[in-house]
Amino acid sequence: MKKLSVFLILLNLSLCASAQVKTDKKLNKIIHDLVQGFNGDIGIYVKNLKTGKVAEYKGDSIFPTASMIKVPITAGVMNKVAKNELDYQSILTYKDSLLYAGEDILGSFKNGEKIALSKVMMLMITTSDNTASLWCQSLAGGGQAINELMAQEGLQHTRVNSRTAGRSAKQLKYGWGQTTPHEMATLVTKVRNGELISPAASERIYRNLIRIYYDSHALSEIPPYVQAASKSGAVDDARSEVLLVNAPHGDYVFCIATKNQKDISWEQSNEGWVLIKSLSKLLWNYFEPDSRWKPAAGMEKFHH
């Protein structure tokens, strides 16, 4: 009898949680139609933060984060700052051992050069600097500390895999990090609402997320005079992006992620990137139907 009572309570809680999710049926159908024929796996989660209505396509499936993992890493560093274990304004010393080979700005520093932690974090988000990101991951206490924070925030699947004990199998499958479109959208929404770590930490993170250098995909379909917090990620067979748009008629957030793409090219015509742009354009026009804005002719010459 006791076990039955517990079961009924849990069932009731589950039904209540399900009842609270308001589905935008029209948008849901549009999104399901949009993804048909894509050569790979897709996950999409969209929420109108004003109405609370949701539309999704496999939004709770797990995908590689690629560089979207830098949002949880940022949270990990800010958590240390909030505990006075790190000083946001502290001056750090760069070492050659930190180098992650590539075109990173920080990776061009000479051994022994100085840089503020605040600038390292800016480079991690704004220019998606991998050397800066791995440094920040270490400063945050490593992947395990960041993963514990994500768990505390109620995110079950958003995890750092790389350089994190016990997660080599997950790294082999998903790479540096993993998440679901639903969880990544939720994380950025927490930042928007001042609910991640503290209102001040959230505000600082949000200000960093609105200054993105790589703006040729989802961001390219949002008017440049409309603020949007975002982070994208890409590896050969996976492309992803999360946006929270401060739209005139109300904020909306969405995350799209792919994996197992057949198209592994790095041209703007990559099927994953084309889908991301198409979704962003679709959502802007859906939530702002009176907008007449479209990207200026010739913008393709200025893609990052």
Please explain how this structure is put together.
The model has no long low-confidence stretch (mean pLDDT 94). The protein starts with a helix and ends in a 17-residue tail after the last helix. With 304 residues, the chain is an alpha+beta fold. It contains ten helices and eleven strands. It is 39% helix and 17% strand.
Short descriptors:
globular, 6-stranded mixed sheet, 304 residues, 3-stranded antiparallel sheet, alpha+beta, single chain, 10 helices
Summarize the structure.
The protein has 304 residues and is α+β, with helices and mostly antiparallel strands. It contains ten helices and eleven strands.
Q: Helix amount, in percent? A: 25-40%
- Beta content comes to 15-25%
Order of helices and strands: HEHEEEHEEHHHEHEHHEEEH
Give the helix/strand class.
alpha+beta
DSSP helical segment count: 10
Radius of gyration: 20 Å
Main sheet: strand order: 1-3-2-11-10-9
What is the number of strand segments? 11
Spatial shape = globular
Ends distance: 63 Å
Give the low-confidence spans.
none
Largest sheet composition: 6 strands, mixed
Oligomer: single chain
Query: How would you state the average pLDDT, rounded?
Result: 94
Topology, element by element:
Layout: H1 2-20, E1 22-23, H2 25-34, E2 41-48, E3 53-57, E4 63-64, H3 70-82, E5 91-93, E6 114-116, H4 117-126, H5 130-139, H6 143-152, E7 159-160, H7 168-174, E8 177-179, H8 181-192, H9 199-209, E9 228-235, E10 238-245, E11 252-259, H10 271-287
Parallel strand pairs: 1-3
Antiparallel strand pairs: 2-3, 2-11, 4-8, 5-6, 7-8, 9-10, 10-11
